[in-house]
Design a protein that fits this description.
about 25% helix; D-Amino Acid Oxidase, Chain A, domain 2; 2 domains; binds flavin-adenine dinucleotide; FAD; 21 strands; 8 helices; 9-stranded mixed sheet; FAD/NAD(P)-binding domain; 6-stranded mixed sheet; alpha+beta
């Protein structure tokens, strides 16, 4: 990089806080904007925990990106002195022949990941908190665990500020206007000029960029927290968990040891509607599926939730995020549509955003998530 580049980061949430950190670390002049303040829980981040996994069941092409993210998770923890992630393992359970089980085993074999395979008997003995079905197996991803989402966003944003970034809080960006020699960022208080803008507005992507040529479906996600009534949950091993089928769901024991959080898969999320008017009240009927899952697979959890929270996330048709320049506007770099699995990748995504904003290209293997030549509607 010759002259210092001025880069706007629009949306200082999960991806934007990491982008601001990586850009500031590389010497860019960074100005961030968020409609709220870093670390808030009114969007895709929140709810105390996110799963980190090394073995990706969606697509093994994520594994090199996860390895890069892993290095940066360590670096961010070192630089901030905060425990942002704890490796407690992640147990992927379900029918042996299920596609996601196969993809996990494929990515483990291809990349030599630290894991254990458990058959029905071993699973029942070692993890009595889960009721399992005949033919179920499990893969325990050992380099896995939980991330603290709010603390991570806040810490990455603060680290960016320590490195010189400026962050405008409670400052929604109204318009991004590509101009001949860069890009203008318009807010209610004025317009600023930048060389490049990184756009990471999560569930607001369609609002801010109404002409986006790809569909990002914004969904409303419920998390529910349940208290154990049985000793099964008091063991030493408290991994995050994912059940693949027949109903895909996931969960995490809460870091304070009091409860277990449960979440559902994409197909069970309702459309979010206007992200500025997210319906945060959970109707009793919406809990039926949670109750059913508890009685079938986790009977040691009391079926009355002690906490309910609602979030939003943008899904692409393929579930692969959109990462790269906007068509025809090389100096507007988009990161959107993380489809329910972006948090673990976020430091790597921030670094890739910095590559794209400062150098125009990234050395990371991102063809499969790139906006360039993206055919998907
Ligand atoms: C309930 C739930 C559970 C999940 N579980 C996991 C998991 O276990 N593991 C995992 O890896 N991933 C998980 N994910 C996915 C992950 O959390 C998301 O992929 C990730 O948080 C998306 O980050 P983002 O930066 O795109 O959006 P956000 O984090 O929402 O950030 C967008 C930011 O943009 C700001 N903004 C919006 N509009 C504007 C504007 N006009 N001007 C300025 N600022 C603006 C918002 O205030 C917000 O701060 C989960 C998601 C949800 C919702």
């Amino acid at each position: 990089m010759s002259a210092t580049k001025r880069v706007a980061v629009v949306g200082v949430g999960t991806m934007g806080s990491q982008a601001a950190w990586r850009l500031a670390a590389r010497g860019a002049e960074v100005v961030g904007y968020d409609r709220f303040a870093p670390g808030h829980d009114r969007s895709a981040a929140g709810g105390d925990t996110r799963i980190f996994r090394s073995a990706h069941f969606e697509d093994s092409r994520y594994v090199p990106l996860l390895k890069h993210a892993d290095t940066l998770w360590e670096e961010l923890q070192r630089e901030t002195g905060r425990e942002l992630r704890r490796l407690t393992g992640c147990l992927l359970m379900g029918p042996t022949e299920h596609q996601q089980m196969a993809t996990v085993l494929e990515s483990i074999a291809e990349h030599g990941l630290d894991h254990e395979v458990l058959d029905t008997e071993a699973l029942a003995k070692r993890f009595p908190q889960f009721r399992i079905e005949d033919g179920d197996a499990a893969v325990l991803d050992r380099h896995a665990g939980f991330i603290r989402p709010e603390l991570t966003v806040l810490s990455a944003a603060r680290r960016a500020e320590e490195l010189g970034a400026r962050i405008h809080r409670y400052t929604p960006v109204r318009e991004i206007v590509p101009v001949a020699n860069g890009v203008e960022i318009r807010t209610d208080t004025g317009t600023e000029h930048f060389d490049t803008a990184v756009v990471t507005v999560g569930p607001w992507v369609n609002d801010l960029l109404p002409d986006l040529p790809w569909e990002v479906d914004i969904r409303r996600l419920i998390n529910a927290w349940y208290v154990p009534t049985a000793d099964d949950w008091s063991g030493q091993e408290r991994p995050a968990f994912i059940r693949t089928a027949p109903t895909h769901c996931y969960g995490l024991p809460s870091p304070d040891g009091v409860s277990v959080k449960l979440g559902l898969s994409r197909a069970l999320h309702r459309p979010a509607g206007d992200p500025n008017r997210l319906e945060r009240t959970v109707e009793p009927g919406e809990l039926d599926i949670f109750t059913e899952l508890l009685s079938r697979y986790m009977p040691g959890l009391h079926p009355d939730p002690i906490r309910l929270s609602v979030y939003m996330e943008g899904y692409t048709e393929s579930s692969r995020p959109l990462v790269g320049p906007l068509p025809g506007h090389g100096n507007v770099v988009l990161l959107a549509g993380f489809s329910g699995h972006g948090f673990k990748l976020s430091p790597a995504m921030g670094d890739i955003a910095a590559d794209l904003a400062l150098d125009g290209a990234s050395p990371r293997p991102i063809d499969f998530i790139s906006t360039l030549d993206r055919a998907e509607a």
